[in-house]
Protein backbone atom coordinates (compact mmCIF):
# COMPACT_ATOMS: atom_id res chain seq x y z
CA UNK A 1 0.00 0.00 0.00
CA UNK A 2 1.14 3.50 -0.71
CA UNK A 3 -0.37 5.01 2.44
CA UNK A 4 1.69 7.83 3.85
CA UNK A 5 3.66 6.64 6.89
CA UNK A 6 3.58 8.81 10.02
CA UNK A 7 6.80 10.55 10.99
CA UNK A 8 8.40 8.96 14.03
CA UNK A 9 10.57 10.45 16.74
CA UNK A 10 12.86 8.50 19.03
CA UNK A 11 14.40 9.73 22.28
CA UNK A 12 17.01 7.68 24.13
CA UNK A 13 19.58 5.83 22.07
CA UNK A 14 21.21 3.44 24.49
CA UNK A 15 21.91 -0.15 23.45
CA UNK A 16 18.20 -0.95 23.47
CA UNK A 17 17.03 2.31 21.88
CA UNK A 18 19.54 2.14 19.05
CA UNK A 19 18.34 -1.30 17.94
CA UNK A 20 14.68 -0.38 18.31
CA UNK A 21 15.02 2.89 16.37
CA UNK A 22 16.99 1.07 13.70
CA UNK A 23 14.08 -1.32 13.04
CA UNK A 24 11.73 1.63 12.57
CA UNK A 25 14.12 3.28 10.14
CA UNK A 26 14.55 0.01 8.25
CA UNK A 27 10.78 -0.21 7.83
CA UNK A 28 10.86 3.03 5.84
CA UNK A 29 9.66 5.56 8.38
CA UNK A 30 11.09 9.10 8.53
CA UNK A 31 12.86 9.20 11.86
CA UNK A 32 13.87 12.12 14.05
CA UNK A 33 16.20 11.27 16.90
CA UNK A 34 17.36 12.95 20.08
CA UNK A 35 19.54 11.66 22.88
CA UNK A 36 21.65 13.35 25.53
CA UNK A 37 24.91 11.97 24.12
CA UNK A 38 24.83 12.96 20.44
CA UNK A 39 27.56 10.47 19.56
CA UNK A 40 25.13 7.62 20.24
CA UNK A 41 22.99 8.79 17.30
CA UNK A 42 25.80 8.58 14.72
CA UNK A 43 25.01 5.16 13.28
CA UNK A 44 21.32 6.01 12.92
CA UNK A 45 22.05 9.38 11.31
CA UNK A 46 24.32 7.64 8.80
CA UNK A 47 21.41 5.31 7.99
CA UNK A 48 19.13 8.30 7.33
CA UNK A 49 17.73 9.48 10.67
CA UNK A 50 17.60 13.22 11.38
CA UNK A 51 19.22 14.53 14.53
CA UNK A 52 17.46 17.31 16.44
CA UNK A 53 18.64 19.05 19.56
CA UNK A 54 15.70 18.71 21.96
CA UNK A 55 12.53 16.74 22.76
CA UNK A 56 10.66 19.94 21.88
CA UNK A 57 11.76 19.69 18.24
CA UNK A 58 10.80 16.03 18.12
CA UNK A 59 7.35 17.01 19.40
CA UNK A 60 7.05 19.52 16.58
CA UNK A 61 8.15 17.22 13.74
CA UNK A 62 6.92 13.73 14.69
CA UNK A 63 3.43 12.29 14.99
CA UNK A 64 4.54 9.24 16.97
CA UNK A 65 7.31 9.61 19.53
CA UNK A 66 9.00 6.78 21.40
CA UNK A 67 11.08 7.35 24.51
CA UNK A 68 13.35 4.91 26.28
CA UNK A 69 15.58 6.77 28.69
CA UNK A 70 17.12 6.00 32.09
CA UNK A 71 15.28 6.87 35.27
CA UNK A 72 11.81 8.20 36.07
CA UNK A 73 13.31 11.67 36.62
CA UNK A 74 14.63 11.53 33.03
CA UNK A 75 11.19 10.51 31.78
CA UNK A 76 9.62 13.39 33.68
CA UNK A 77 12.10 15.86 32.21
CA UNK A 78 11.63 14.54 28.64
CA UNK A 79 7.83 14.79 28.89
CA UNK A 80 7.10 17.65 31.27
CA UNK A 81 10.23 19.82 31.28
CA UNK A 82 10.22 23.22 29.57
CA UNK A 83 11.71 21.58 26.45
CA UNK A 84 9.57 18.49 26.96
CA UNK A 85 7.26 16.51 24.70
CA UNK A 86 3.94 17.16 26.38
CA UNK A 87 4.85 20.76 27.21
CA UNK A 88 5.40 21.40 23.52
CA UNK A 89 3.27 18.69 21.92
CA UNK A 90 0.55 18.99 19.30
CA UNK A 91 -2.96 17.58 19.80
CA UNK A 92 -3.31 14.19 18.10
CA UNK A 93 0.30 13.13 18.72
CA UNK A 94 1.15 9.70 20.10
CA UNK A 95 3.83 9.58 22.80
CA UNK A 96 4.98 6.15 23.96
CA UNK A 97 7.26 5.71 26.95
CA UNK A 98 9.11 2.40 26.73
CA UNK A 99 11.40 3.13 29.68
CA UNK A 100 10.79 0.90 32.68
CA UNK A 101 9.48 3.63 34.92
CA UNK A 102 6.99 4.41 37.64
CA UNK A 103 3.34 3.41 37.11
CA UNK A 104 2.33 6.55 38.99
CA UNK A 105 4.34 8.72 36.62
CA UNK A 106 2.80 6.87 33.65
CA UNK A 107 -0.66 7.80 34.93
CA UNK A 108 0.43 11.40 35.38
CA UNK A 109 1.83 11.62 31.84
CA UNK A 110 -1.38 10.11 30.47
CA UNK A 111 -3.48 12.69 32.34
CA UNK A 112 -1.25 15.61 31.32
CA UNK A 113 -1.28 14.45 27.70
CA UNK A 114 -5.02 14.01 27.78
CA UNK A 115 -5.51 17.66 28.76
CA UNK A 116 -3.85 18.63 25.47
CA UNK A 117 -5.41 15.98 23.26
CA UNK A 118 -2.17 13.97 23.19
CA UNK A 119 -2.30 10.15 23.28
CA UNK A 120 0.15 8.74 25.84
CA UNK A 121 0.98 5.06 26.29
CA UNK A 122 3.30 3.30 28.75
CA UNK A 123 4.98 0.36 27.06
CA UNK A 124 7.99 -1.03 28.94
CA UNK A 125 9.79 -3.97 27.41
CA UNK A 126 11.48 -7.17 28.44
CA UNK A 127 14.04 -9.15 26.47
CA UNK A 128 17.24 -7.13 26.83
CA UNK A 129 19.70 -6.03 24.21
CA UNK A 130 19.40 -9.27 22.25
CA UNK A 131 15.59 -9.06 22.19
CA UNK A 132 15.87 -5.47 20.97
CA UNK A 133 18.38 -6.40 18.29
CA UNK A 134 16.32 -9.33 17.04
CA UNK A 135 13.02 -7.41 17.24
CA UNK A 136 11.48 -9.93 19.60
CA UNK A 137 10.95 -7.87 22.73
CA UNK A 138 7.98 -8.47 25.00
CA UNK A 139 6.05 -5.18 25.13
CA UNK A 140 3.60 -4.47 27.97
CA UNK A 141 1.23 -1.68 27.08
CA UNK A 142 -1.01 0.52 29.22
CA UNK A 143 -3.25 3.41 28.11
CA UNK A 144 -6.27 3.69 25.84
CA UNK A 145 -6.90 0.58 23.78
CA UNK A 146 -7.66 2.59 20.62
CA UNK A 147 -4.29 4.32 20.97
CA UNK A 148 -2.61 0.94 21.43
CA UNK A 149 -4.21 -0.30 18.22
CA UNK A 150 -3.24 2.84 16.34
CA UNK A 151 0.46 2.35 17.04
CA UNK A 152 0.52 -1.46 17.03
CA UNK A 153 2.31 -1.53 13.65
CA UNK A 154 5.20 0.35 15.29
CA UNK A 155 5.31 -2.07 18.23
CA UNK A 156 5.36 -4.96 15.78
CA UNK A 157 8.59 -3.64 14.29
CA UNK A 158 10.27 -4.08 17.69
CA UNK A 159 8.63 -6.98 19.46
CA UNK A 160 6.84 -10.31 19.30
CA UNK A 161 4.94 -10.80 22.55
CA UNK A 162 2.94 -7.55 22.56
CA UNK A 163 0.16 -7.26 25.15
CA UNK A 164 -2.40 -4.59 25.95
CA UNK A 165 -2.89 -4.67 29.72
CA UNK A 166 -5.47 -1.95 30.28
CA UNK A 167 -5.45 1.60 31.55
CA UNK A 168 -2.47 3.95 31.82
CA UNK A 169 0.17 2.62 34.20
CA UNK A 170 -0.77 -1.02 33.65
CA UNK A 171 2.12 -1.60 31.27
CA UNK A 172 4.49 -0.42 34.00
CA UNK A 173 2.64 -2.40 36.67
CA UNK A 174 3.00 -5.56 34.58
CA UNK A 175 6.71 -4.92 34.18
CA UNK A 176 6.95 -4.45 37.95
CA UNK A 177 5.24 -7.82 38.53
CA UNK A 178 7.83 -9.29 36.15
CA UNK A 179 10.73 -7.73 38.08
CA UNK A 180 9.25 -8.81 41.42
CA UNK A 181 9.14 -12.44 40.25
CA UNK A 182 12.75 -12.20 39.04
CA UNK A 183 14.04 -10.54 42.23
CA UNK A 184 13.34 -13.39 44.65
CA UNK A 185 14.18 -16.04 42.09
CA UNK A 186 17.68 -14.57 41.66
CA UNK A 187 18.23 -15.08 45.41
CA UNK A 188 17.11 -18.71 45.13
CA UNK A 189 19.29 -19.40 42.09
CA UNK A 190 22.39 -17.93 43.73
CA UNK A 191 21.75 -19.61 47.08
CA UNK A 192 21.33 -22.98 45.38
CA UNK A 193 24.68 -22.52 43.62
CA UNK A 194 26.41 -21.37 46.79
CA UNK A 195 25.00 -24.35 48.67
CA UNK A 196 25.98 -26.81 45.93
CA UNK A 197 29.51 -25.43 45.79
CA UNK A 198 30.02 -25.54 49.56
CA UNK A 199 28.58 -29.06 49.68
CA UNK A 200 31.38 -30.08 47.30
CA UNK A 201 29.03 -31.00 44.47
CA UNK A 202 29.83 -30.88 40.76
CA UNK A 203 27.83 -27.70 40.17
CA UNK A 204 27.40 -28.22 36.42
CA UNK A 205 25.99 -31.68 37.04
CA UNK A 206 23.65 -30.28 39.67
CA UNK A 207 22.41 -27.64 37.21
CA UNK A 208 21.84 -30.27 34.53
CA UNK A 209 19.84 -32.29 37.05
CA UNK A 210 17.65 -29.60 38.60
CA UNK A 211 17.11 -27.17 35.70
CA UNK A 212 14.45 -29.23 33.96
CA UNK A 213 12.24 -29.90 37.00
CA UNK A 214 10.29 -27.99 39.61
CA UNK A 215 13.26 -25.72 40.37
CA UNK A 216 13.59 -24.75 36.72
CA UNK A 217 13.54 -21.11 35.64
CA UNK A 218 14.85 -18.78 32.96
CA UNK A 219 17.47 -17.53 35.43
CA UNK A 220 18.58 -21.03 36.42
CA UNK A 221 18.94 -22.04 32.76
CA UNK A 222 20.48 -18.82 31.46
CA UNK A 223 22.23 -17.00 34.30
CA UNK A 224 23.42 -19.83 36.57
CA UNK A 225 25.74 -21.23 33.85
CA UNK A 226 27.29 -17.75 33.51
CA UNK A 227 27.95 -17.69 37.25
CA UNK A 228 29.57 -21.12 37.04
CA UNK A 229 31.84 -19.72 34.32
CA UNK A 230 32.65 -16.60 36.36
CA UNK A 231 30.93 -14.42 33.76
CA UNK A 232 29.35 -11.39 35.44
CA UNK A 233 29.04 -9.25 32.31
CA UNK A 234 25.74 -7.39 32.08
CA UNK A 235 22.78 -8.83 30.23
CA UNK A 236 20.91 -6.53 32.58
CA UNK A 237 22.76 -4.03 34.81
CA UNK A 238 22.45 -4.27 38.58
CA UNK A 239 21.98 -0.47 38.72
CA UNK A 240 18.92 -0.70 36.47
CA UNK A 241 17.51 -3.63 38.39
CA UNK A 242 17.86 -1.61 41.59
CA UNK A 243 15.98 1.26 39.93
CA UNK A 244 13.15 -1.12 39.00
CA UNK A 245 12.99 -2.67 42.46
CA UNK A 246 12.89 0.76 44.11
CA UNK A 247 9.91 1.67 41.92
CA UNK A 248 8.17 -1.65 42.59
CA UNK A 249 8.70 -1.35 46.34
CA UNK A 250 7.38 2.19 46.35
CA UNK A 251 4.26 1.14 44.44
CA UNK A 252 3.74 -1.89 46.70
CA UNK A 253 3.96 0.39 49.73
CA UNK A 254 1.35 2.70 48.22
CA UNK A 255 -0.93 -0.35 47.81
CA UNK A 256 -0.23 -1.39 51.41
CA UNK A 257 1.18 -4.80 50.48
CA UNK A 258 4.15 -6.48 52.09
CA UNK A 259 6.87 -7.69 49.72
CA UNK A 260 9.45 -9.42 51.90
CA UNK A 261 11.21 -11.14 48.98
CA UNK A 262 11.52 -7.93 46.98
CA UNK A 263 12.74 -6.04 50.06
CA UNK A 264 15.37 -8.69 50.73
CA UNK A 265 16.54 -8.70 47.10
CA UNK A 266 16.79 -4.91 47.06
CA UNK A 267 18.84 -4.90 50.27
CA UNK A 268 21.21 -7.50 48.85
CA UNK A 269 21.61 -5.76 45.49
CA UNK A 270 22.20 -2.39 47.17
CA UNK A 271 24.97 -3.99 49.16
CA UNK A 272 26.47 -5.27 45.90
CA UNK A 273 26.21 -1.83 44.30
CA UNK A 274 28.02 -0.42 47.32
CA UNK A 275 30.72 -3.04 46.69
CA UNK A 276 31.19 -1.56 43.21
CA UNK A 277 29.10 -4.05 41.24
CA UNK A 278 26.45 -1.67 39.90
CA UNK A 279 27.62 -2.13 36.31
CA UNK A 280 27.77 -5.91 36.56
CA UNK A 281 24.96 -8.16 35.38
CA UNK A 282 22.23 -9.21 37.80
CA UNK A 283 23.83 -12.67 38.13
CA UNK A 284 26.62 -11.00 40.12
CA UNK A 285 24.30 -11.36 43.11
CA UNK A 286 26.37 -14.51 43.59
CA UNK A 287 29.21 -12.25 44.77
CA UNK A 288 27.12 -11.40 47.83
CA UNK A 289 28.53 -14.62 49.29
CA UNK A 290 32.17 -13.89 48.43
CA UNK B 1 17.09 -62.80 29.00
CA UNK B 2 16.28 -65.45 31.54
CA UNK B 3 18.61 -64.07 34.23
CA UNK B 4 17.27 -64.42 37.72
CA UNK B 5 15.92 -61.10 38.98
CA UNK B 6 16.92 -59.98 42.47
CA UNK B 7 14.20 -59.89 45.09
CA UNK B 8 13.17 -56.34 45.93
CA UNK B 9 11.82 -54.87 49.15
CA UNK B 10 9.90 -51.61 49.43
CA UNK B 11 9.26 -49.63 52.60
CA UNK B 12 6.95 -46.61 52.63
CA UNK B 13 3.80 -46.81 50.53
CA UNK B 14 2.51 -43.27 50.40
CA UNK B 15 1.23 -41.83 47.13
CA UNK B 16 4.77 -41.76 45.70
CA UNK B 17 5.87 -45.12 47.11
CA UNK B 18 2.79 -46.95 45.89
CA UNK B 19 3.36 -45.88 42.28
CA UNK B 20 7.09 -46.57 42.43
CA UNK B 21 6.65 -50.05 43.94
CA UNK B 22 3.97 -50.81 41.40
CA UNK B 23 6.39 -50.21 38.50
CA UNK B 24 8.88 -52.66 40.06
CA UNK B 25 6.17 -55.28 40.46
CA UNK B 26 5.00 -54.72 36.88
CA UNK B 27 8.55 -55.36 35.66
CA UNK B 28 8.35 -58.89 37.07
CA UNK B 29 10.35 -58.57 40.28
CA UNK B 30 9.36 -60.44 43.44
CA UNK B 31 8.38 -57.67 45.84
CA UNK B 32 8.17 -57.61 49.63
CA UNK B 33 6.48 -54.59 51.11
CA UNK B 34 6.21 -52.97 54.52
CA UNK B 35 4.58 -49.74 55.58
CA UNK B 36 3.30 -48.43 58.92
CA UNK B 37 -0.30 -48.32 57.69
CA UNK B 38 -0.94 -51.81 56.32
CA UNK B 39 -4.04 -50.68 54.44
CA UNK B 40 -1.82 -48.68 52.07
CA UNK B 41 -0.28 -51.95 50.83
CA UNK B 42 -3.59 -53.54 49.79
CA UNK B 43 -3.51 -52.69 46.10
CA UNK B 44 0.08 -53.92 45.76
CA UNK B 45 -0.64 -57.14 47.63
CA UNK B 46 -3.59 -57.79 45.31
CA UNK B 47 -1.18 -57.34 42.39
CA UNK B 48 1.18 -59.94 43.86
CA UNK B 49 3.40 -58.21 46.42
CA UNK B 50 4.07 -59.94 49.74
CA UNK B 51 3.33 -58.07 52.95
CA UNK B 52 5.74 -58.45 55.85
CA UNK B 53 5.48 -56.95 59.30
CA UNK B 54 8.84 -55.21 59.79
CA UNK B 55 11.88 -53.74 58.01
CA UNK B 56 13.83 -56.60 59.63
CA UNK B 57 11.93 -59.18 57.56
CA UNK B 58 12.46 -57.16 54.40
CA UNK B 59 16.19 -57.14 55.18
CA UNK B 60 16.10 -60.93 55.45
CA UNK B 61 14.18 -61.63 52.23
CA UNK B 62 15.21 -58.89 49.77
CA UNK B 63 18.52 -58.21 48.05
CA UNK B 64 17.60 -54.67 47.04
CA UNK B 65 15.50 -52.54 49.40
CA UNK B 66 14.01 -49.15 48.61
CA UNK B 67 12.75 -46.81 51.31
CA UNK B 68 10.68 -43.66 50.89
CA UNK B 69 9.25 -42.63 54.23
CA UNK B 70 8.42 -39.33 55.93
CA UNK B 71 11.01 -37.59 58.06
CA UNK B 72 14.71 -38.16 58.82
CA UNK B 73 13.71 -39.66 62.18
CA UNK B 74 11.62 -42.25 60.29
CA UNK B 75 14.57 -43.01 58.02
CA UNK B 76 16.82 -43.44 61.04
CA UNK B 77 14.33 -45.82 62.69
CA UNK B 78 13.85 -47.87 59.50
CA UNK B 79 17.61 -48.28 59.02
CA UNK B 80 19.14 -48.21 62.48
CA UNK B 81 16.32 -49.17 64.87
CA UNK B 82 16.31 -52.59 66.55
CA UNK B 83 14.00 -53.87 63.78
CA UNK B 84 15.87 -51.84 61.18
CA UNK B 85 17.41 -52.67 57.82
CA UNK B 86 21.07 -52.15 58.59
CA UNK B 87 20.73 -53.56 62.10
CA UNK B 88 19.46 -56.80 60.58
CA UNK B 89 20.89 -56.64 57.05
CA UNK B 90 22.97 -59.20 55.19
CA UNK B 91 26.32 -58.37 53.60
CA UNK B 92 25.96 -57.66 49.89
CA UNK B 93 22.49 -56.14 50.19
CA UNK B 94 21.62 -52.86 48.46
CA UNK B 95 19.62 -50.35 50.52
CA UNK B 96 18.42 -47.23 48.73
CA UNK B 97 16.82 -44.34 50.61
CA UNK B 98 14.65 -42.28 48.29
CA UNK B 99 13.15 -40.16 51.06
CA UNK B 100 14.17 -36.50 50.88
CA UNK B 101 16.23 -36.56 54.05
CA UNK B 102 19.32 -35.17 55.71
CA UNK B 103 22.65 -35.40 53.82
CA UNK B 104 24.38 -35.95 57.18
CA UNK B 105 22.12 -38.90 57.95
CA UNK B 106 22.76 -40.30 54.45
CA UNK B 107 26.50 -40.24 55.16
CA UNK B 108 25.91 -41.95 58.50
CA UNK B 109 23.79 -44.73 56.92
CA UNK B 110 26.43 -45.25 54.26
CA UNK B 111 29.14 -45.60 56.90
CA UNK B 112 27.06 -47.90 59.09
CA UNK B 113 26.15 -50.05 56.08
CA UNK B 114 29.75 -50.15 54.98
CA UNK B 115 30.81 -51.68 58.32
CA UNK B 116 28.57 -54.66 57.53
CA UNK B 117 29.33 -54.95 53.82
CA UNK B 118 25.96 -53.41 52.91
CA UNK B 119 25.73 -51.03 49.93
CA UNK B 120 23.78 -47.88 50.82
CA UNK B 121 22.71 -45.19 48.36
CA UNK B 122 20.83 -41.92 48.91
CA UNK B 123 18.52 -41.25 45.98
CA UNK B 124 15.88 -38.60 46.62
CA UNK B 125 13.49 -37.81 43.80
CA UNK B 126 11.76 -34.85 42.24
CA UNK B 127 8.64 -34.89 40.10
CA UNK B 128 5.83 -35.47 42.59
CA UNK B 129 2.94 -37.91 42.46
CA UNK B 130 2.48 -37.50 38.70
CA UNK B 131 6.19 -38.13 38.03
CA UNK B 132 6.01 -41.24 40.21
CA UNK B 133 2.87 -42.49 38.47
CA UNK B 134 4.29 -41.92 34.99
CA UNK B 135 7.73 -43.32 35.91
CA UNK B 136 9.50 -40.12 34.97
CA UNK B 137 10.93 -38.96 38.28
CA UNK B 138 14.24 -37.16 38.47
CA UNK B 139 16.48 -39.28 40.72
CA UNK B 140 19.56 -37.78 42.40
CA UNK B 141 21.96 -40.44 43.57
CA UNK B 142 24.82 -40.34 46.05
CA UNK B 143 27.04 -43.22 47.20
CA UNK B 144 29.50 -45.54 45.48
CA UNK B 145 29.35 -45.35 41.69
CA UNK B 146 29.59 -49.14 41.29
CA UNK B 147 26.56 -49.52 43.58
CA UNK B 148 24.69 -46.92 41.55
CA UNK B 149 25.40 -48.86 38.36
CA UNK B 150 24.36 -52.13 39.97
CA UNK B 151 20.87 -50.86 40.79
CA UNK B 152 20.42 -48.55 37.79
CA UNK B 153 17.93 -50.96 36.16
CA UNK B 154 15.68 -50.50 39.21
CA UNK B 155 15.98 -46.69 39.05
CA UNK B 156 15.09 -46.85 35.35
CA UNK B 157 11.75 -48.44 36.23
CA UNK B 158 10.83 -45.30 38.20
CA UNK B 159 12.53 -42.33 36.58
CA UNK B 160 13.88 -40.65 33.49
CA UNK B 161 16.40 -38.02 34.58
CA UNK B 162 18.68 -40.21 36.72
CA UNK B 163 21.98 -38.69 37.83
CA UNK B 164 24.92 -39.95 39.84
CA UNK B 165 26.21 -37.00 41.86
CA UNK B 166 29.13 -38.51 43.75
CA UNK B 167 29.75 -39.69 47.30
CA UNK B 168 27.17 -40.55 49.95
CA UNK B 169 24.99 -37.57 50.84
CA UNK B 170 25.42 -35.89 47.46
CA UNK B 171 22.01 -37.08 46.24
CA UNK B 172 20.45 -35.39 49.27
CA UNK B 173 22.63 -32.30 48.86
CA UNK B 174 21.49 -31.97 45.23
CA UNK B 175 17.86 -32.27 46.30
CA UNK B 176 18.52 -29.55 48.91
CA UNK B 177 19.95 -27.26 46.21
CA UNK B 178 16.76 -27.95 44.24
CA UNK B 179 14.53 -27.05 47.21
CA UNK B 180 16.58 -23.92 47.97
CA UNK B 181 16.04 -22.67 44.41
CA UNK B 182 12.30 -23.36 44.69
CA UNK B 183 11.92 -21.72 48.11
CA UNK B 184 12.83 -18.17 47.11
CA UNK B 185 11.17 -18.48 43.74
CA UNK B 186 7.84 -19.34 45.40
CA UNK B 187 8.06 -16.02 47.27
CA UNK B 188 8.68 -14.15 44.01
CA UNK B 189 5.85 -15.89 42.19
CA UNK B 190 3.35 -15.17 44.96
CA UNK B 191 4.52 -11.57 45.43
CA UNK B 192 4.20 -10.91 41.71
CA UNK B 193 0.61 -12.22 41.79
CA UNK B 194 -0.26 -10.24 44.91
CA UNK B 195 1.19 -7.11 43.34
CA UNK B 196 -0.63 -7.66 40.04
CA UNK B 197 -3.94 -8.23 41.79
CA UNK B 198 -3.62 -5.15 44.01
CA UNK B 199 -2.59 -3.07 40.99
CA UNK B 200 -5.93 -4.01 39.43
CA UNK B 201 -4.37 -5.95 36.56
CA UNK B 202 -5.93 -8.86 34.68
CA UNK B 203 -3.77 -11.46 36.40
CA UNK B 204 -4.22 -14.15 33.74
CA UNK B 205 -3.09 -11.70 31.06
CA UNK B 206 -0.09 -10.74 33.18
CA UNK B 207 0.87 -14.40 33.56
CA UNK B 208 0.56 -14.99 29.83
CA UNK B 209 2.81 -11.98 29.25
CA UNK B 210 5.56 -12.62 31.79
CA UNK B 211 5.73 -16.44 31.92
CA UNK B 212 7.70 -16.84 28.71
CA UNK B 213 10.42 -14.29 29.44
CA UNK B 214 13.11 -13.61 32.03
CA UNK B 215 10.63 -14.06 34.91
CA UNK B 216 9.63 -17.50 33.64
CA UNK B 217 9.84 -20.56 35.86
CA UNK B 218 8.23 -23.95 36.45
CA UNK B 219 6.36 -22.48 39.42
CA UNK B 220 5.14 -19.46 37.48
CA UNK B 221 3.86 -21.67 34.65
CA UNK B 222 2.44 -24.49 36.78
CA UNK B 223 1.55 -23.17 40.22
CA UNK B 224 0.59 -19.54 39.56
CA UNK B 225 -2.40 -20.58 37.40
CA UNK B 226 -3.62 -22.79 40.28
CA UNK B 227 -3.42 -19.80 42.62
CA UNK B 228 -5.42 -17.70 40.15
CA UNK B 229 -8.06 -20.45 40.17
CA UNK B 230 -8.07 -20.64 43.98
CA UNK B 231 -6.73 -24.21 43.83
CA UNK B 232 -4.50 -24.88 46.84
CA UNK B 233 -4.66 -28.70 46.66
CA UNK B 234 -1.31 -30.36 47.28
CA UNK B 235 1.00 -31.24 44.42
CA UNK B 236 3.58 -30.99 47.19
CA UNK B 237 2.55 -30.56 50.86
CA UNK B 238 3.63 -27.48 52.79
CA UNK B 239 4.53 -29.72 55.76
CA UNK B 240 6.98 -31.68 53.60
CA UNK B 241 8.45 -28.55 52.09
CA UNK B 242 9.03 -27.21 55.61
CA UNK B 243 10.79 -30.48 56.51
CA UNK B 244 13.07 -30.07 53.48
CA UNK B 245 13.82 -26.42 54.21
CA UNK B 246 14.66 -27.21 57.84
CA UNK B 247 17.17 -29.82 56.66
CA UNK B 248 18.64 -27.46 54.05
CA UNK B 249 18.99 -24.64 56.56
CA UNK B 250 20.64 -26.92 59.08
CA UNK B 251 23.14 -28.14 56.46
CA UNK B 252 23.81 -24.57 55.29
CA UNK B 253 24.51 -23.54 58.88
CA UNK B 254 26.97 -26.42 59.24
CA UNK B 255 28.74 -25.14 56.12
CA UNK B 256 28.74 -21.61 57.51
CA UNK B 257 26.81 -20.12 54.59
CA UNK B 258 24.11 -17.49 54.84
CA UNK B 259 20.82 -18.35 53.12
CA UNK B 260 18.60 -15.29 53.57
CA UNK B 261 16.08 -16.36 50.92
CA UNK B 262 15.68 -19.83 52.37
CA UNK B 263 15.37 -18.42 55.89
CA UNK B 264 12.68 -16.01 54.75
CA UNK B 265 10.76 -18.73 52.92
CA UNK B 266 10.91 -21.03 55.94
CA UNK B 267 9.62 -18.29 58.23
CA UNK B 268 6.73 -17.57 55.87
CA UNK B 269 5.80 -21.23 55.39
CA UNK B 270 5.96 -21.87 59.14
CA UNK B 271 3.53 -19.04 59.63
CA UNK B 272 1.22 -20.68 57.08
CA UNK B 273 1.50 -24.04 58.81
CA UNK B 274 0.55 -22.31 62.06
CA UNK B 275 -2.49 -20.93 60.20
CA UNK B 276 -3.55 -24.53 59.46
CA UNK B 277 -2.21 -24.80 55.91
CA UNK B 278 0.34 -27.57 56.44
CA UNK B 279 -1.64 -30.01 54.27
CA UNK B 280 -2.13 -27.49 51.47
CA UNK B 281 0.09 -27.37 48.39
CA UNK B 282 3.14 -25.12 48.39
CA UNK B 283 1.30 -22.61 46.17
CA UNK B 284 -0.80 -21.74 49.26
CA UNK B 285 2.08 -19.41 50.19
CA UNK B 286 -0.18 -16.90 48.44
CA UNK B 287 -2.43 -17.03 51.52
CA UNK B 288 0.36 -15.37 53.49
CA UNK B 289 -1.06 -12.12 52.11
CA UNK B 290 -4.69 -12.85 52.97
Q: How is this structure best summarized?
A:
Two copies of one chain form a homodimer. Chain A is about 50% helix and about 10% strand.
Summary tags:
homodimer, 290 residues, alpha/beta, Rossmann fold, N-(1-d-carboxylethyl)-l-norvaline Dehydrogenase, domain 2, 2 domains, 6-stranded parallel beta sheet, 3-stranded mixed beta sheet, 14 helices, 52% helix, globular
Polypeptide structure, described:
Two copies of one chain form a homodimer. Chain A is α/β, with parallel strands linked by helices. Chain A folds into two domains: 8-167, 3-Layer(aba) Sandwich (Rossmann fold), CATH 3.40.50.720; 173-289, N-(1-d-carboxylethyl)-l-norvaline Dehydrogenase, domain 2, CATH 1.10.1040. In chain A, 52% of the residues lie in helices and 12% in strands. Chain A contains 14 helices and nine strands. Chain A has helices spanning 15-26, 42-46, 55-61, 72-80, 85-88, 103-115, 128-133, 145-155, 170-198, 203-210, 218-222, 224-228, 238-255, 260-277; strands at 8-11, 31-34, 50-51, 64-67, 94-97, 119-122, 125-126, 137-141, 159-164. A six-stranded parallel sheet of chain A has the order 3-2-1-4-5-6, with helices on both faces. In chain A, helix 9 (170-198) packs across helix 13 and helix 13 runs antiparallel to helix 14. At the A-B interface, helix 9, helix 10, helix 11, helix 13 and helix 14 of A face helix 9, helix 10, helix 11, helix 13 and helix 14 of B.
Amino acid sequence: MATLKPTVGFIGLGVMGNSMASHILDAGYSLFVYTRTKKKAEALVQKGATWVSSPKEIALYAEIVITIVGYPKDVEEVYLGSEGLITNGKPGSYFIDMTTSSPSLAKKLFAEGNKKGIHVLDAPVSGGDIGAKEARLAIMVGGNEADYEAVLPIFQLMGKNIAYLGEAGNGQHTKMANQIAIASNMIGVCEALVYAKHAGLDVEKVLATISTGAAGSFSLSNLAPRIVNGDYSPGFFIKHFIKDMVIALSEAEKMGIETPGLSLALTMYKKLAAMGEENSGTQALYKYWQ
